[in-house]
Amino acid sequence: MSSEQPLSADVVIVGSGVAGSSIANELARAGISVIVLEAGPRVDRQHFVENFRNLENKPSYQGPFPAVPWARHPPNQMTPNEYLHTTGPDAEAYQQVYLRMMGGTTWHWAGCAWRYLPSDFELRSRYGQGRDWALKYEDLEPFYYQAEVMMGVCGPDPAKEDLGSPRKQPYPMDALPISYAAQQFRKLIAEKTPWRVVHEPQARNTRPYDNRPTCEGHNNCMPICPIGAMYNGSYSVYHAEAAGARFVPNAVVYKIERDDANKRVTAVHYFDPDKGSHRVTGKYFVIAAHCIETAKLLLVSADDKSPDGVANSSGHVGRNMMDHTGVQVTFISGDKALWPGRGPLETNVIDNFRDGDWRSERGAYLVHMVDDNQVDLATSLAISKGYVGKELEEQIRYLASHTVRLFSHNEGLADPDNRLTLSKTNKDILGIPHPEVYYKLPEYTVKSCDHTRGLFKELIGLMHGRDEQWTPGYFPQDHPAGSTIMGVDPKDSVVDGHCRTHDHENLFIASSSVFSSVGTGNITLTVAALALRVADTLKKELNHA
Amino acid sequence: MPETVRKTFVSLLVAGSILAGTSHYCAAADEPDAALIQRGEYLATAGDCVACHTRPGGKPFAGGLKIATPMGDIVSTNITPDPDHGIGAYTEEDFEKSVRHGVRKDGSYLYPAMPYVSYSGLTDGDVKALYAWFMHAVKPVAETPTETSLSFPANVRTAMAGWNMLANHNPPETGDSATFEKMRRGRYLANALEHCGTCHTPRNFILSEKQDQYLAGGPLDGWYAPNITSSKTSGIGDWSEDDLVQYLQTGAVPGRSQAAGPMGEAVEHSTSHLTDADLHALAAYILQVAPQEEEPGQKPRDSFGQATAQPDIRSGDLTRIDDVTELKGGAVYDANCAACHGYDGAGASNRYVPSLFSNSVVGASRPDNLIMTVLYGVNRTAGKTHAFMPGFDGHSDVQRLSDAEVADVVNYVMAQYGNGNPHVTADQVKTFHKK
């Protein structure tokens, strides 16, 4: 491979998920040369749909996506895990899953596209907890909208349902129709509680949009939208390629090379699947490789000049690991049938515990009424109760139509002790260490989860529920954040308010890894908005140059 | 999105091109009355002028649509009333000559993709109304599309004079078209305005419509405008007037057919805007057109197939994420079509997604329209309904199928739900790619 032309571009991006591919698209459209290095392979939807149909365990989010050996991702959420090794008192609460392949983890997400609240960026100054971001909501607002247009987000009329994040424009698409189950749930909450159920903003088509069809409610957004009605990063990959960006699949970056002064990045090096090494030079570099892999790459790149890893003079690379920890319960409603599972998975949220003065004591949370098909759960419950024959069929029908599933997203908090390190014992076939994460739930999150359990019990009572099944302990919501935390002070943070590393002037990070607080909604829209802001910064600097 | 998108009339030698007059003489005189202008607007809609005279994303009637022909690209012209770039300098007489006779203001001849052989049937009063609307209600656009340049001999516009003598022209109508009785009104709409025959009538060796095979079907731009004569087996003689009205109004009749491609555009821009009375007149006329039989023993296109009984209880081996090998027809269907059209081919219960059996596109003897639909999808708005199916060609964001996969799934669908396996090959699919 030594005879090949050296790769070089104005901007070299590591990672082709929503962050990397949307930056590539913006830059390519501005006439800037871009190379995107993706550790995983090119993929296509039809094989995932076939895998999903052949899969026995349908709710397995990672199931249809068996990894390649040179770019492994966690095979499941089991602890111990074959790839992401979690330790500490709450190891199981940090057993995240994600995907390493073209388009990234948005191949399986529920499309929840929240903007954060202004307060989420000011957690320390408003509530004395955690950290403030080095930017304000207003700085991100235009990029939130740009991200919503790019992804195709539907949401409620802000005049009728204010979600607390000020908007200058309406959502690009009208809200989804509300499913029957959700209508029943909304009615109950409105009539019997002081709370409300809002329409969750969704990166999902409610009309034909961006050459993709309208959502038909197949109800398997996770693990795979079978028709392309939900956004995933592959669309941005395609758009970026059409605009001239070059994507290199199966390119596992393992080293970030800097100049003698250790101020500027000069190249990144990647292995191909046969461990052939390649060097890619550029003017700017963006690491957009997911919270866990981004920190891993910075740490793997340690050398004499940066013995603790690249961009890590603060020692905070890999620290402050956060998530939205979940509490989950399913139960059988004693009220009339809900028939969940008709429509997208997650569209209805109680948002009354998203913000308040109590955030000085305990974390915020969202409650999702999960609108998923409950036939598998109903079947195992009916069998466990000993039903057979016609009675079994009737019970499955009854239970499937009366099952309610609730889960929460409880706010984590930046704690430097919650830390990602490189495994000393586990390496992949290229010799790159697996990631390891020590995790202990912050008290702030534990208190929040306790509050959620109380709320769930109240809701179960209101619905005359029985056969409660609580998911034991705490479970990860796959929203890892914080591993290259943003801050004003280079001594205790990795990137500044523009996601530029404090240590290296031409190295940016586009990932939830920069979040200073994990916020009160699903992370993806904020990842996309930050990425588009990085693209904006790069466009300005490259056009000045 | 490219500046212009090609629209190919494969069967047409050449297409029309009205160039802006060079004179700065202003033709507009007295303001005509509102009723006349309104009538002109309706007629322009019925004539579907916008279909060719607007490029995708362009301003209405400013031209710029590329129409590919064997002789080269023809670019539709700006027919807004801008005096320099459009037809603002045209007098009503100039306008009439170009619309009905294919002769532009400077005396040169138009190419007959401009369906003046159809518009020749317009009444004097309707030409006047059209002129009034174009001059007074269409917004002038000051842009000139790139000029058509064809290869010899088609670039010699005077050659068209000879063609005009040989070609069939629609005889002019007289009187007030608004007062025509139903069947005459239907014929007028079909021929002088909607110009159905431009696509649905096969052409002879000089590429003039064969009037003895009126509406017997013809190819265009990869699609095939089918036989819509009253033949009960080869045409649409088994349709009721209401069926046809519904089709023209909404673009779909569940259990019979749905419009995509150029017909989808015709429904969207033209027929869905017609009055009920006009739709009934048009439908009644079309349904009494002389039958053209294709093959003996043929069955109607919408009479094939039935729901397949295939329980979907299975498990199987999973493929690794880098395995993107081509799938076979049944698997392509399963992974890409079944989510909307159903495992059994029955479509959606609300009929938004059509069934694949009892479907003229699948039951046709030619696979052309099914191939085109798989490659380029459906994108048709009529009334409040936006019918959309993504395409699966090499630019799809949903799934990019190889030519072999497209061929395989077309063969699978037609064998399963249609008129038998047409044995389409990957090479054949390649010929359907947009240039």
UniProtKB/TrEMBL annotation, chain A:
<dbReference type="Pfam" id="PF01266">
    <property type="entry name" value="DAO"/>
</dbReference>
<keyword id="KW-0274">FAD</keyword>
<feature type="domain" description="Glucose-methanol-choline oxidoreductase C-terminal">
    <location>
        <begin position="477"/>
        <end position="531"/>
    </location>
</feature>
<dbReference type="Pfam" id="PF05199">
    <property type="entry name" value="GMC_oxred_C"/>
</dbReference>
<keyword id="KW-0560">Oxidoreductase</keyword>
<dbReference type="GO" id="GO:0050660">
    <property type="term" value="F:flavin adenine dinucleotide binding"/>
</dbReference>
<comment type="similarity">
    <text>Belongs to the GMC oxidoreductase family.</text>
</comment>
<dbReference type="InterPro" id="IPR051473">
    <property type="entry name" value="P2Ox-like"/>
</dbReference>
<dbReference type="InterPro" id="IPR036188">
    <property type="entry name" value="FAD/NAD-bd_sf"/>
</dbReference>
<dbReference type="InterPro" id="IPR000172">
    <property type="entry name" value="GMC_OxRdtase_N"/>
</dbReference>
<dbReference type="InterPro" id="IPR007867">
    <property type="entry name" value="GMC_OxRtase_C"/>
</dbReference>
<keyword id="KW-0285">Flavoprotein</keyword>
<feature type="domain" description="Glucose-methanol-choline oxidoreductase N-terminal">
    <location>
        <begin position="239"/>
        <end position="325"/>
    </location>
</feature>
<dbReference type="Pfam" id="PF00732">
    <property type="entry name" value="GMC_oxred_N"/>
</dbReference>
<dbReference type="InterPro" id="IPR006076">
    <property type="entry name" value="FAD-dep_OxRdtase"/>
</dbReference>
<dbReference type="GO" id="GO:0016614">
    <property type="term" value="F:oxidoreductase activity, acting on CH-OH group of donors"/>
</dbReference>
<feature type="domain" description="FAD dependent oxidoreductase">
    <location>
        <begin position="10"/>
        <end position="44"/>
    </location>
</feature>
<protein>
    <submittedName>
        <fullName>Choline dehydrogenase</fullName>
    </submittedName>
</protein>
TrEMBL record, chain B:
<feature type="binding site" description="covalent">
    <location>
        <position position="196"/>
    </location>
    <ligand>
        <name>heme c 2</name>
    </ligand>
</feature>
<keyword id="KW-0479">Metal-binding</keyword>
<dbReference type="InterPro" id="IPR009056">
    <property type="entry name" value="Cyt_c-like_dom"/>
</dbReference>
<dbReference type="InterPro" id="IPR036909">
    <property type="entry name" value="Cyt_c-like_dom_sf"/>
</dbReference>
<feature type="binding site" description="covalent">
    <location>
        <position position="340"/>
    </location>
    <ligand>
        <name>heme c 3</name>
    </ligand>
</feature>
<feature type="binding site" description="axial binding residue">
    <location>
        <position position="341"/>
    </location>
    <ligand>
        <name>heme c 3</name>
    </ligand>
</feature>
<feature type="domain" description="Cytochrome c">
    <location>
        <begin position="324"/>
        <end position="417"/>
    </location>
</feature>
<keyword id="KW-0349">Heme</keyword>
<feature type="domain" description="Cytochrome c">
    <location>
        <begin position="35"/>
        <end position="138"/>
    </location>
</feature>
<feature type="domain" description="Cytochrome c">
    <location>
        <begin position="181"/>
        <end position="290"/>
    </location>
</feature>
<protein>
    <submittedName>
        <fullName>Sorbitol dehydrogenase</fullName>
        <ecNumber>1.1.99.3</ecNumber>
    </submittedName>
</protein>
<feature type="binding site" description="covalent">
    <location>
        <position position="199"/>
    </location>
    <ligand>
        <name>heme c 2</name>
    </ligand>
</feature>
<keyword id="KW-0560">Oxidoreductase</keyword>
<feature type="signal peptide">
    <location>
        <begin position="1"/>
        <end position="28"/>
    </location>
</feature>
<dbReference type="GO" id="GO:0020037">
    <property type="term" value="F:heme binding"/>
</dbReference>
<feature type="binding site" description="axial binding residue">
    <location>
        <position position="200"/>
    </location>
    <ligand>
        <name>heme c 2</name>
    </ligand>
</feature>
<feature type="binding site" description="covalent">
    <location>
        <position position="52"/>
    </location>
    <ligand>
        <name>heme c 1</name>
    </ligand>
</feature>
<feature type="binding site" description="covalent">
    <location>
        <position position="49"/>
    </location>
    <ligand>
        <name>heme c 1</name>
    </ligand>
</feature>
<dbReference type="Pfam" id="PF00034">
    <property type="entry name" value="Cytochrom_C"/>
</dbReference>
<keyword id="KW-0472">Membrane</keyword>
<dbReference type="InterPro" id="IPR051459">
    <property type="entry name" value="Cytochrome_c-type_DH"/>
</dbReference>
<feature type="binding site" description="covalent">
    <location>
        <position position="337"/>
    </location>
    <ligand>
        <name>heme c 3</name>
    </ligand>
</feature>
